[in-house]
Amino acid sequence: MKLYYKPGACSLATHITLHEIGADFDIEEVDSKRGQTASGANYGEINPNGYVPALTLDSGDILLEGPAILQYLADQSPKSGLAPASGTLQRARLQQHLNFVASELHTAFSPLFANNPPEEEARSAVVAEISEKLSIFERHFADGRPFLLGDQFSVADAYFFVVASWTAPTNIGLADWSNIAAYVDRVAARPATKPAMCAEGLVQ
Q: For the chain, which end, N or C, has fewer CB atoms within 10 Å of the first or last residue's CB respectively?
C-alpha cells in the first residue's frame, strides 16, 4: 500500500492507523498547492479532488476520503479492535464520531489553513465556532473515558487526535479543554503515533 499525505494534515490519522494494524506500506508527500507528489507525479490523476489522504491498495485500487479509508483499514484487521463490528450500536457510534469530526470540527478549522487566513474579527468568529465544537468533546470525556468509545482506541480517535492537535499550529491551544489536552497527550504516547509523526517531520 501507499499513503499519499501532507504533514500534519488529516492524512496523519490514516498514517497512525496503518502503524496500529502493522501494515506494510510506503508514504509519499503531496504538495497540494502544486498538485504534485514528491516523486513528481500529477496528484490530480491519483485523487481528482486534490486533497489528502489517498491510499493505493496492493490491488491497485485507490481509496479516497479519510473516514472511509479508516474504516476499511480497521475492517481489514479486525483483531486490532480499531472498529466495532458492522451492524452494532458501537459501530454506529464510531461513524457518529467520524462524521462529526469530518463535517463539523475539521470543517471549522479549514479557514485557518486557507491561503488567505481570516483577519482578526473573522478569525475570532472561526475560533468561537471551533471552541463550541471542542467543548462538545470536552463534555464527552468528562466521565473519565480514555477514548471516544470508552476503553478501546478506535480509528475515530486517530482522526479526532489529529484535528484536536491543530489547536497548536493555529495558536488556539487546549488550555480551556483539560480533558482533551490529556486525551491528546494519551494518544500521542501510543506506540503507533510517534513513528507516524516522526515520518512526517512533526516530532523528532
A: C
